[in-house]
Amino acid sequence: MTKNTQTILRVDASVRTGDSVTRDLTTRFIDSLTLGTETALLRHDLASGLPLIDEAWTSANFTPEEDRTDTQKQILEQSDALIADLQAADIIAIGVPVYNFSIPAGLKAWVDLIARARVTFRYTENGPEGLLTGKKAYLFVASGGTPVGSEIDFATSYMKHMLAFVGITDVTVIAADQMAMDADASLARAKSQISEALAA
Ligand SMILES: Cc1cc2nc3c(=O)[nH]c(=O)nc-3n(C[C@H](O)[C@H](O)[C@H](O)COP(=O)(O)O)c2cc1C
């Protein structure tokens, strides 16, 4: 791998694996972005969900690394792997369908697994500090009726907040929102936002 190789982490959260607006937009963006470039593409498809954190996971996470049992280390393995891909990525592209005014459960499970004190964020005397710095993220958001960026769109605001919390503050939102009203116009807006993002 040369120094100029960019690493892209793609995260898909739609439970629709075929006819999915967020998947289509994410593919369109990544295909254009990587055309003629040397790219390492990492991918997490959350269509089938992820394990939910539980008491054993939380306890393992709160146990200092050097004191963890083998079982606790094993419990954290999936989280470690998801975080390793985030750490490796220069660019993170996340498909975010709006489900019940928020994010799909699989994406929330991903957030729970990657938000780790002392690994992806830490508390300082000035408050929390994100540790995943120097990255750029793109959110590909789709909704049926909820206007993206409105006060009832908890999906976009939550994802932006969580990414910033772990240090990813450079976030561009591509929105195909209110698809149920005028799908063609909504998709056209999203595609033009992709062109703008690629030109930036
Ligand atoms: C379980 C579920 C809940 C949804 N909730 C909302 C919602 O709260 N607001 C909204 O505007 N659209 C809602 N939708 C519509 C989706 O946001 C829309 O179909 C979007 O295109 C889904 O992304 P995808 O095409 O990538 O699967 C919901 C869809 C599903 C399947």
Automatic annotation (TrEMBL):
<comment type="function">
    <text>Also exhibits azoreductase activity. Catalyzes the reductive cleavage of the azo bond in aromatic azo compounds to the corresponding amines.</text>
</comment>
<dbReference type="InterPro" id="IPR023048">
    <property type="entry name" value="NADH:quinone_OxRdtase_FMN_depd"/>
</dbReference>
<dbReference type="InterPro" id="IPR050104">
    <property type="entry name" value="FMN-dep_NADH:Q_OxRdtase_AzoR1"/>
</dbReference>
<keyword id="KW-0520">NAD</keyword>
<comment type="function">
    <text>Quinone reductase that provides resistance to thiol-specific stress caused by electrophilic quinones.</text>
</comment>
<dbReference type="InterPro" id="IPR003680">
    <property type="entry name" value="Flavodoxin_fold"/>
</dbReference>
<dbReference type="Pfam" id="PF02525">
    <property type="entry name" value="Flavodoxin_2"/>
</dbReference>
<keyword id="KW-0285">Flavoprotein</keyword>
<dbReference type="InterPro" id="IPR029039">
    <property type="entry name" value="Flavoprotein-like_sf"/>
</dbReference>
<comment type="similarity">
    <text>Belongs to the azoreductase type 1 family.</text>
</comment>
<feature type="domain" description="Flavodoxin-like fold">
    <location>
        <begin position="7"/>
        <end position="196"/>
    </location>
</feature>
<feature type="binding site">
    <location>
        <position position="14"/>
    </location>
    <ligand>
        <name>FMN</name>
    </ligand>
</feature>
<protein>
    <recommendedName>
        <fullName>FMN dependent NADH:quinone oxidoreductase</fullName>
        <ecNumber>1.6.5.-</ecNumber>
        <ecNumber>1.7.1.17</ecNumber>
    </recommendedName>
</protein>
<keyword id="KW-0288">FMN</keyword>
<comment type="subunit">
    <text>Homodimer.</text>
</comment>
<keyword id="KW-0560">Oxidoreductase</keyword>
